[in-house]
Q: What sequence folds into this?
C-alpha cells in the first residue's frame, strides 16, 4: 500500500483537479485531502480525521454515505449487465424501471425523462431540445436563453454560459451570444432597502419583462432558474417571485426550465422544488439526488407541450440527433432505483423538511444576533449564514479578506465541512437529508464557535 506521502506526491504530480488553483496545487500549496471512507453523514480521510459532511459532497450524497443497499444494487447490476446503450429503443430493466419511478414522482404535466450523466450535460440537452422545439414550430429566431446572475447550471460551453458567476466566464470567452442574464432574486442584497419582498419580486419580474422587450420576445426561447439559488449563495426566492416570473414568461411564449439538480428528490422537504413553489416548468433538470451520487446519472424531464412537438419533429425529420454513449447507464439506473427506494422507506423528504427547519431555527438562535451575521436563511436541508461587516448598513467585507473562507476553515478544524459560497462571505450548509437533530446541533455549535474565532 502506498504511504500517505507517496499518494500525495502522485496527486500533486499527475492529477489536474476541477475547480482548483492549479499552480498552487502543483507546488504543494493549498488544500489537499484524500478521502478514504464514508458512513452516514461522516467521511474519513487518510490522515485519520472523521468529518461531519455538512455539504453532502457537493449537495449530492442525499441518503448519506455507506448505504449497502445501493452498493449491492450496483454490484448486482455490474454482474448482470454492466452496460448496454439506450439508442434506437434499447433499454435495460433498470433504466426502464427508473424512468417509471422518476415520472411517478414528477409533476403531472411532465411526459418523459431523457437520461444523461451529470447536471451540465442535462442542461446541454435541455438547450438542444428547446432549439429543436422552436425550429419544429417554425420559429427559428426564437433561440436565446435567459438565466439569472448567480444562477448555476454547469461548466460546459452552453451551461457555463448559463451559469451567472464571473469566475465561470472570465478568460473562457463566455458567455456565448445566445445567453443573457437577468437580476438574481436576492432580497438580502436588493439595492433599495425600503422595498418589501413582494415588491422586490415584482421588480425582478419587471426587469425580466424589460429585457424581453429590449431583445424582442420573438428571439427568446426559454428562462432557466433553480427554484432556490444554490451555488450563487443558497437564496430562497422572495415571496411571490415565481408567480410573477411565470406570468411574464407565459405572456411572451417563453419556456421555463427548472434546474432541480440540487432541489430534486427531497432537499427542500418536497419531492421537487417545482411542487414546493408552484412552478409549472417545461423541462426539469435532475442529477445529484437522483442517485445520491453513488453513480453518475442525470436527466431532463420533458413536459407535455414540448414532448408533443418533439414527436412531431422526429415524425418529420427522423431520429433525434442527440445521444450520449452513457445515457441511461444501467449501473447509474440501478443506483437510482435503490436510492429512490431508500428515500421513500427512510422518509427522507419529510426528514429534510423537519430537521432542515430545526437546523435553520437553531442557527438563527445561535448566531442570528451576531454583529457580523446579516442573515441566516434557507429552505429544507439548505441553510446559509451571510456575513457582513456591518449589520445596519448591510455593508460587506472586502472580498480580499476572505472572511467566509476563514470561518469555513475554522469549522473544518473543528470537524465540520461547510462550503464558502462564491461571490460573498456566505457559509453554506447542505447536509445529507438523513441528518439528525443531534448532528444539526453539532453543526450549529461548530458554526457559532468558528464565527467567534474569526469575527470575535
Ligand atoms: N445545475 C445545478 C443547479 C447545479 O448545482 C449543478 C452542480 N453543482 C449543475 C447544474 C451541474 O451539475 P454537474 O456538476 O453534475 O455537471
A:
Amino acid at each position: 500500500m502506498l504511504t500517505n506521502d507517496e499518494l500525495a506526491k502522485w496527486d500533486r504530480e499527475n492529477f489536474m483537479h476541477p475547480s482548483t488553483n492549479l499552480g498552487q496545487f502543483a507546488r504543494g500549496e493549498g488544500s489537499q485531502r484524500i478521502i478514504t471512507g464514508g458512513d452516514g453523514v461522516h467521511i474519513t480521510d487518510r490522515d485519520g480525521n472523521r468529518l461531519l459532511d455538512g455539504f453532502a459532497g457537493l449537495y449530492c450524497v442525499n441518503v448519506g454515505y455507506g448505504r449497502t443497499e445501493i452498493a449491492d444494487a450496483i454490484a448486482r447490476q455490474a454482474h448482470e449487465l454492466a452496460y448496454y446503450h439506450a439508442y434506437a429503443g434499447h433499454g435495460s430493466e433498470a433504466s426502464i424501471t427508473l424512468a417509471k419511478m422518476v415520472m411517478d414522482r414528477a409533476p403531472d404535466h411532465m411526459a418523459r425523462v431523457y437520461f444523461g450523466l451529470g447536471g451540465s450535460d442535462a442542461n446541454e440537452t435541455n438547450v438542444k431540445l428547446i432549439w429543436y422545439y422552436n425550429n419544429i414550430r417554425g420559429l427559428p429566431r426564437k433561440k436565446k436563453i435567459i438565466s439569472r446572475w448567480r444562477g448555476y447550471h454547469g461548466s460546459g460551453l452552453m451551461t457555463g454560459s448559463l451559469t451567472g458567476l464571473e469566475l465561470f466566464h472570465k478568460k473562457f470567452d463566455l458567455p456565448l451570444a445566445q445567453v443573457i442574464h437577468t437580476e438574481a432574486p436576492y432580497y438580502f442584497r436588493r439595492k433599495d432597502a425600503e422595498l418589501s419582498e413582494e415588491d422586490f419580486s415584482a421588480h425582478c419580474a419587471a426587469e425580466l419583462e424589460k429585457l424581453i422587450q429590449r431583445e424582442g420576445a420573438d428571439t427568446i426561447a426559454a428562462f432557466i432558474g433553480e427554484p432556490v439559488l444554490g451555488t450563487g449563495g443558497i437564496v430562497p426566492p422572495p415571496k411571490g417571485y415565481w408567480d410573477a416570473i411565470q406570468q411574464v414568461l407565459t405572456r411572451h411564449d417563453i419556456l421555463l426550465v427548472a434546474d432541480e439538480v440540487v432541489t430534486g428528490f427531497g432537499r427542500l422537504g418536497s419531492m421537487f422544488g417545482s411542487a414546493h413553489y408552484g412552478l409549472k416548468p417545461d423541462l426539469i433538470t435532475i442529477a445529484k439526488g437522483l442517485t445520491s451520487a453513488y453513480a453518475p446519472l442525470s436527466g431532463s424531464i420533458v413536459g407535455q407541450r414540448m414532448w408533443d412537438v418533439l414527436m412531431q419533429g422526429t415524425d418529420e425529420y427522423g431520429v433525434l440527433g442527440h445521444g450520449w454513449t452513457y445515457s441511461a447507464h444501467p449501473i447509474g439506473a440501478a443506483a437510482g432505483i435503490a436510492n429512490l427506494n431508500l428515500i421513500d422507506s427512510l422518509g427522507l423528504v419529510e426528514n429534510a423538511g423537519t430537521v432542515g427547519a430545526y437546523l435553520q431555527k437553531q442557527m438563527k438562535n445561535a448566531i442570528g444576533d451576531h454583529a457580523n451575521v446579516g442573515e441566516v436563511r434557507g429552505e429544507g436541508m439548505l441553510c446559509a449564514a451571510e456575513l457582513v461587516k456591518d449589520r445596519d448598513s448591510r455593508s460587506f467585507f472586502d472580498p480580499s479578506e476572505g472572511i467566509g473562507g476563514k470561518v469555513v476553515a475554522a469549522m473544518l478544524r473543528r470537524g465540520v465541512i461547510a462550503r464558502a459560497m462564491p461571490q460573498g462571505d456566505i457559509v453554506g450548509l447542505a447536509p445529507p437529508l438523513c441528518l439528525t437533530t443531534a448532528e444539526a446541533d453539532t453543526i450549529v455549535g461548530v458554526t457559532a464557535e468558528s464565527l467567534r474565532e474569526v469575527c470575535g
Q: What stands out?
A: Residues 58, 118-120, 123, 152-154, 226, 230-231, 259, 261-262, 287 surround 4'-deoxy-4'-aminopyridoxal-5'-phosphate (CB under 6 Å). The mean pLDDT is 97. Residues 348-367 form the longest helix (20 residues). Residues 42 and 52 are 4 Å apart (CA to CA).
